[in-house]
Design a protein that fits this description.
The chain is an alpha+beta fold. It has a single domain, classed as Roll (Nuclear Transport Factor 2, Chain: A), CATH 3.10.450. 36% of the residues lie in helices and 30% in strands. It has three helices and four strands; from the N terminus they run αββββαα. It has a four-stranded antiparallel beta sheet with strand order 1-2-3-4. β3 and β4 form a beta hairpin. The two termini are 18 Å apart.
Amino acid sequence: RRLQPAKFERDAALLELVQSLGIGGSVFHVLNEIPEQGEDLFTLLCDDQLVMSFQVPRGKIPLCAEDIVKVPIAEYRNKIGQGKHRIRLDETLKNARVLLSR
């Protein structure tokens, strides 16, 4: 799903968090979101260039990120291999590129 900060408060907070980490970009997609007991784990596609993963502890305002990993898209594609995750990534990349070309 694409982050929509104008529609959803949580998306706005996530975008603000990502930008505070020095990540620029105009299109952000959530590739994976896993709610855990004390934190939520996120994997985001930033434009069509970078994938970043991080944890967001619950109950902290403003949001803060822990265990941040940034990976170029080519490296991430190789890491996830084939299968449904690759198909979803390729579809998301296609959508991101359409949005970026507008």
